[in-house]
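Homework help board

Subject: predicted structure for assignment chain

Our instructor gave us this sequence and asked us to write out the predicted structure in token form, then describe one feature. I got the tokens but I'm not sure how to describe them. Can anyone check?
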Amino acid sequence: MITEADSTLKLLEKMATAANLREDSRLRLRDWDRIIRWEIDGDPFFWRIAKSEVKISLPALPDICIKCSQETLERLAFEELPFFLALWTTGDMKFEGSFSDAHRLGYIFLNRKNDKRERRVVFVVHCFLNINTRFPEGSAFAGADLPVIETLLQKGVGMIQMPCPEFHCLGLEKDRVGQLSESELRFCYQTQASSVVDQIEQYLDYGYEIAGIIGMNPSPSCGVEVAKGKGKFLGRDEDISEREGPGVFIEELLNLMKARGVKPLPLFGIRRILTGENGMEERLKIIHEKL
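My token output:
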């Protein structure tokens, strides 16, 4: 005869097995040791999370306590009720423990049927989203480069806005251009690039796809295929013509990625458009081809 306790154990084993089989969940289980006490209609059951696995456990002093009904547990086990919703929205589940543990469990038992995210992102140079950091009359748009941004939105990718290295290192109106030595400028750019690589590593660690890193040609900082005035920014010469090769920020970003063992990612530049310039179709064509 199957008792209610047996039925509860089977449901908890089902959830544990699902977590252990999911590659992305196993990433979140690594280096995480916890004893979880479930109280199902007041009756105690235990999980042990260790060595990247969830297992039924003997009673022990818990780090986390989860309280719910048998009906709620069934809905959780059969992915009819998302863990996050049960915890944060519907009140079907009570949680005792740290918020960080609650979030980790929510991701481990993420209900993919209700999660519409494609887990696909692009890193975008700052001034495509905020044109105000560009020089006066340096853009044909009011606040953001709408054609580029709208095209990316249509592609269904999440946009991660990279910091503007010129804002952080040279000021909003670039009034420190020529005042920094090459080593000072590169160190400042490296600091900004490091924050981007930190984000890249986290997205890759958790199994997200980075569809691309998008720079702005021919920026001396964020150009990819070409850069204009790079030598002047570095204090090497007064040449402000376009030259092949990446800008200083993209150069430092690539150097840091290589030094930290980050795999090469799709990288391409989209040309900025000034008032009265043509080339919009060609710019959007690049996005469609690359993404």
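Reply (TA_rk): Your tokens look well-formed. For the description, you could write something like this. The chain has twelve helices and eleven strands. That's the kind of observation they're looking for.
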